[in-house]
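Re-run with default settings, no changes from the original entry. Doing this only to confirm the output is reproducible before filing.
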Amino acid sequence: MQIVELKVEGFRTLKNVSWQPGNLNIVIGPNASGKSNLLKLLHLINKLSQGNLEDTINLSGGMASVLWNGQSRQINIRVQLGKETRDSNYTVNYTLRLSRVGNSSSYVVDIELMEYEEKIDANVEKNFPRLVTRSLLERREKNFSVRTEDTTEEMDLELFDASETLLSQLKSFPRKARYITVFAQTLNQFGVYQEFRRDDDANVRRSVISSFEEELDPDGQNLASVLHTVYESDVDFQENIDRAMTAAFGNDYKGLAFPPAGSQRVELGLRWKSLSRPQPAAVLSDGTLRFLFLITALSLPKLPSLICIDEPEAGLHPSMLPIIAEYAANAAERTQIVLTTHSVQFLDAFSEYNPTTTVAQLQDGETKLVTLDGEKLAYWLGKYSLGSLFNSGELENMAKDALDDESEEQEARNSNLSDEDAG
């Protein structure tokens, strides 16, 4: 399943935002426009099924710090995940409301809803296309219900933590409530990579206890363990990593190495044809480590259900950016990709991949997200590169025009409602 639509009210600069991402997404905009807040929201959504939502909000400074302008009383989130099958397509809509408790930094989850919709193809039942809708989960006030294919179970909310979601507290849903389980698993598998430490004290530069790991942590500090596990066992993955590293560093690159570093410990290293010993991670440049982290995140055999990377271009040589773009486009064939950037060179690297392009703009303290019209963008891309359109301000102009059109439509709707009321 992947995100079809995301709506949020009252979170940081995202006062009132609706966003419909594609498979490969580029979110552009100047500094402080709200790009990173979109990733912070996705990180928060990732925590909804893990049972540490309260810790996540507290680490951000509490409820007062994550509310829009410190004034909103609530954060409303609506996530729609969808999947197409051969005979039908279905979506699961999940709504959550976090309400601040007085003027404190605390909150409660006071609304949590989930419903399922499936559009069944006419050929399946030799009838008209059919839309099936059912409520899966409903949490209001002190009661909630979970619905399966056979029955509805009601339970007392006083048995549960008011600051955590039911998704995280109901560890074993009824067997037939499979859409709830799949939804929770999908959120749990989001990979949101906002920070990757490469300083001298970072764990990624140290030896690690040899262990089996196939998934990157959000901070990427288990990179050595993941590479040791997958690079040594998966030939296709090894070829992908070596191809990218050769493209970036030339034919002197020989491969990755994992020399022993004490009892049951290994360290990450690079082998070069010109050197007799592997070069350990402790002495690799920041850019080399970051590049290796990015191509690993985009090449793993088991990709997260969503990959979000904040400003992938940071710290990289411009010659590496087309490689990252290629690997991101390939990964988008297997999962959903969201990349934020304000780099002209990085945007130019995507010119042949036609990503879903969203412009973030800050207006009166709130972020506006405008996904550019595909046909209009394609017209301009026939004449200019994506980076040159961004550098010239044309992308922002297109976003402004879209916002103006939306404002005019809203005014027209309000006017029509006023006329109807008068009548």
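The first helix runs from residue 35 to 46. The first strand starts at residue 2 and ends at 11.
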